[in-house]
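Backbone geometry tokens:
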Amino acid sequence: MKVRKLLLLLFGLLFLFPANTYALSCAQLPSIEQAYEKYDAVVIAYVDDIVRKRQSNEIQLTVLNSFKGIQDRKLSVEEDMTWGTSERGTQYLYFLRKKDGGGWENPLCTPMQKVTSAAKALDFLKEKEIAIKDAELPKGAQSTNWIEVSILVLALGLLGYGLVRRVKRSNNNSS
């Protein structure tokens, strides 16, 4: 009789526990539509550098395409050093949050992925692309003046042509 009660108790306990349990609420990632609405910025970016800080990584990005929230070409993003998966030299589709004190973070559980495996997401995002500002020139840097460059190249070309003719004449006269 005791064995029967024990078996009934164990059978009843099976119904108390859920079939699937997850350590994180983000074990099931949101759809691309939900992620687009949930996060403050969505970009495709190239990882230029990863700088280790005390409790996080600072990821230096070059934004290639922006679909929401960011118009700057260069971006610095904070990512936790224990779960961050960004790799230098790789392009990712990032879903970012704006931090309270300013700046951006790549939070835990974002549906971040390498661009090479983001075809479905990119298909959804293609019509949502926004313009990116060109990077400003550093102080003291000037844009290229193509007229000056052209004149310099022409002058050097004429000088070289004259020098070659002079050398050929001197070689012909000495023969």
